[in-house]
Automatic annotation (TrEMBL):
This is Neutral metalloproteinase. InterPro entries: Metalloprotease_M4, Peptidase_M4, Peptidase_M4/M1_CTD_sf, Peptidase_M4_C_domain, Peptidase_M4_domain. Belongs to the peptidase M4 family. The lineage of its organism: Bacteria, Pseudomonadati, Pseudomonadota, Alphaproteobacteria, Acetobacterales. Residues 82-165 form the Peptidase M4 domain. GO terms for cellular component: extracellular region. The keyword DNA damage does not apply.
Length: 343
């Protein structure tokens, strides 16, 4: 998407895209380096009891590329009136609450790790990322992208990279990297669907990732669609959503760390199919199966789609029974996207 923006955009849009791409290369390299390593003890400061919500601290970079920036909101402060600050603060809280209530997980490391976030990062920075220590949000360029705190599922997505880093350590390249990205989309979607007062069942959810990030100038509805990969946007500047939803259209590429943001559409659709087949709140059955698979000791750093699929099937059988409808739904989901061949 940023590559297309750099090719097709106005001078200002191209400058924003190139600046974001330059920064992203650094942080993707960092994410790849962190894969497979547990969260270090130095980052597990102030561990809390399961009943106590970990502390949140929001910083502002003041539109410079500095981290962490200056503190602008803590647990002792009320809303600031700065939308990015308050959205980040609330989004971290909703993410913490989701993991605690859905999976009895105490923060992203399950040891009460406090959560930090920096907002107003960079000049027209069109992205958000987890850097191994904190969340970082750009303000967008205001022409194509809004501020990146606007979408709760993006906050949940990036923090889920920390969960994957802690639990599964999936290598951030090729199929294992696409699974890494897909797991972040799964948990980001579940966090949005579980908002208090806005609870959604699997059938009610739109399964879009990043709704609200595009300005009204963009011909698109979100960054990705888990329900229909490849349909999220089709825009003269940003190009067409390249995600496949079936192995027949798997994209072999060395770009994007081997297509981690592209081919994640395949396991994304598998999760959507399993969740909607099982019905109800998606975190209760499909989400639990995917979460326990991430935590399974048999998950290797280089796990690809086929091995991950077999693990989810095995976990579904362990949780619900070998002849259960839950296991059958997971088998069918992976078969429909071409990862498993059942005939």
């Amino acid at each position: 998407m940023l590559d297309a923006m750099a090719r097709n955009g106005s001078p200002a849009q191209r400058a924003a895209a190139l600046n974001t791409l330059a920064s992203d290369q650094t942080f993707r390299a960092l994410r790849a380096n962190l894969a497979g390593r547990p969260l270090p003890l130095a980052r597990r400061r102030g561990a809390t009891s399961p009943q106590q919500r970990p502390a949140r601290t929001i910083y502002s970079a003041g539109n410079k590329e500095v981290l962490p920036g200056r503190i602008v909101r803590t647990e002792q402060d009320g809303p600031t009136g700065d939308e990015a600050v308050d959205e980040a603060f609330d989004g971290l809280g909703q993410t913490l609450d989701f993991y605690a209530s859905a999976f009895d997980r105490n923060s992203i490391d399950d040891e009460g790790m406090p959560l930090d976030a920096t907002v107003h990062y960079g000049d027209s920075y069109d992205n958000a990322f987890w850097d191994g220590r904190r969340m970082v949000f750009g303000d967008g360029d205001a022409e194509l992208f809004n501020r990146f705190t606007i979408a709760l599922d993006i906050i949940g997505h990036e923090l889920a990279h920390g969960v994957t880093e802690d639990e599964g350590g999936l290598i951030y390249a090729h199929q294992s990297g696409a699974l890494n990205e897909s797991l972040s989309d799964v948990f980001g979607a579940l966090i949005r669907q579980s908002q208090p007062g806005r609870l959604q069942t699997a059938e009610e959810a739109d399964w879009l990732i990043g709704t609200g990030l595009f300005t009204d100038r963009v011909q698109g509805k979100a960054l990705r669609s888990m329900k229909e990969p490849g349909t999220a946007y089709d825009d003269p500047v940003l190009g067409k959503d390249p995600q496949p939803g079936h192995m027949d259209r798997f994209v072999n590429t060395n770009r994007d760390n081997g297509g981690v943001h592209i081919n994640s559409g395949i396991p994304n659709r598998a999760f959507y199919l399993a969740a909607t087949a099982l019905g109800g709140h998606a975190w209760e059955k499909a989400g639990r199966i995917w979460y326990e698979t991430l935590r399974d000791s048999r998950l290797r750093p280089n796990t690809g789609f086929s091995r991950f699929a077999r693990l989810t099937i095995d976990v579904a059988g362990r949780l619900h029974g070998s002849a259960s409808t839950e296991k059958a739904a997971v088998v069918q989901a992976w078969s429909e996207v071409g990862v498993l061949r059942t005939s």
